[in-house]
Amino acid sequence: MNNLDFHKQTFNNVGWFIPPYVQLEFLGNIAKQINDNNVCESTLAPYLAQIYSPENLSAMVSERYHAVPYINEYHEIIAESVEAHFLGLNHIAVSGLMPVIEGAGRKLADSRSVAVTSIKSVFQNLAIDCKDDVTTNNIGAVGEIVSIMDAFIEFTDNHLYINSNNYSLSDNTNRHGILHGAFADADYGEPLNFYKSIGAIDFLCFVSALSAPISCFAPSPTSESQALAAYYRLCIQLGQKKPAAANKSSQQRR
């Protein structure tokens, strides 16, 4: 049974997980780069930027998020968060996505009759249920899907939903610290926080697609997504032209 345990170990070691909707060869190349270059969480962002590019995210926004059950209820929030990211407003982008992760996660768990006792258990039990489902019913590439589920469990347990006082990495992509206001300006608000958060949204899309008539592959570019990607690139340029006063807090973080 083929699996992605090499990828799981590599990505979990830097506080990440195995992202869905990424070509396996491309994912393997990123894992190799992370290993070969001794990448840690503080130098991870450029590698994830290859995945969450304007072209790839525009395709997800225009072609996928609005079509996935439970995720589609938050499509506009997700779209606004993606736009904020490309404008360089990553505090807003991340704080916009965190409630979506929880809301969609709970609705997916309920749709699969998964019992939950806490917010952390939502993702633990949802992933376990999906593992049982694909194994019992031989859905898709079973070994690969099991590795994806295991990697996400480790990410939520050890990073996203761990007590913020126990968060061990410098990027602070942690639900409690962000939503409860324990983390201030200087503590987060970098692209890496967004990449991990939007990756969690994509994971939930993948979970939904296991029991819905939706492709488990990344959407192909369309004329609409290409136009949106061009707009995102304009957002990047606009964000880079912010007056110095607006950039003061981010410069202080660096």
From TrEMBL:
Superkingdom as given in the UniProt entry: Bacteria
Protein name: Uncharacterized protein
